[in-house]
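User: We ran a pulldown and think these components assemble together. Before we commit to crystallization trials, I'd like a predicted model of the whole complex to look at. Sequences follow.
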Amino acid sequence: MNLLSLGIKSAFIDNMIFAYFLGMCSYLAVSKKVTTALGLGSAVVFVLGITVPLDWLVQEYILKEGALSWLGPKFADLDLEFLQFIMFIAIIAAMVQLVEMVIEKFSPALYGSLGIFLPLIAVNCAILGASLFMVQRDYTFSEATVYGFGSGFGWMFAIVALAAVREKLKYSNVPDGLKGLGMTMLITGLMGMAFKSFIGIAL
Amino acid sequence: MSTETLEQVVVEKQPQEQLFSKRRRRFVTDPLNDDNPITVQVLGICSALAVTVKMEPTIIMAVSVVFVIVFSNLIISLMRNLIPTRVRIIVQLGVIATLVTVVSEVLKAYSYPMYKVLGAFVGLIITNCIVMGRLEAFAMGNKPWDSVLDGLGSGFGYAWVIITVSFFRELLGSGSVFNFKIFEAIHWANFPTMGLMVDPIGAFMVLGILIWIQRSRSGYVEN
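Assistant: Here's a predicted model for the assembly, 426 residues in total across the polymer chains.
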């Protein structure tokens, strides 16, 4: 598949939020202000863009059936796929820690704005979800990289758009029971309908 | 089995507290309504919506989540004094990931079609915020039997919400309940099914309305 069309497809048509509900927890919790939403969004793009290709390497050279054949013929028919979840989550948690340290060291300003969100990303289902989808869909290494960045960008797009709507929503009179989560759910539904229009685009 | 021996230890130490004392019953009943993990605490929505197109996978998902919450709560609660606080997140994730791997292997062995339907979403129980949230907020500071009850409460609170959502989505979206074509059975063959309900959008709408109903009954207002 063409890499550009895969990128557009993963960002808009197969949007993490509107098509797969991934990363909903932080999507709902951190979407009250546009600036914080943008901060969390860029952190997610960053971590997704790194972990998905990294998980691809692990899957291809360690976990897959026969993947360990590079160690010698004795290992040729080993199948470690049952370790997939533990390996992936460990890589994600480690990467998040590493990214946090690197950013703290080289860009204190960015660290200041992302700071609290970085640890949260380890339990963002969009990250683990993207890695699991990458395995399901048999992407190549370059496709996996594009997919990671594309879906991260789609997630950021969605959370920033929702935050913009919620900032305006402060001024409207919402029924008591719908305030907060209920209204956010309905808005997300409406935004999802808008995103449906991307489906018609043939890539 | 292990829970039964544990609860006896607790009872022996504190003979005044019963196994299902009032305080403990509240661990189970609170998350069902007033403190529901999905509709009030806004946790675990990630995987909750993706599997609710049909009722059958939803129930499998609910059972898996209850299993993972209860046992990870129990295990972390047993180890709570041994875990250094600095590395607790990775220990918690390790325990959860192991339990989810067990669920996934069991599904693969005994119910392969269901495993195919749920696909990546079984793995996503690991990042289900309810599980992490209960470990962090409860199991790290409470006794094993209390933690098991707390896990049951949160698990059932999650289960009834996603089962309700899936009931409406399957009824309105596919015109069936548990794959049984209910409208054809009552000779209403041209029942207008809504494509929107099969779509993710339907899940957002149904859950939004469910939250509205639940919150106006309980009087909870978010500011």
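Chain A touches chain B through 47 residues (CB under 8 Å). That may be worth checking against your pulldown data before setting up trials.

User: Thanks, that helps.
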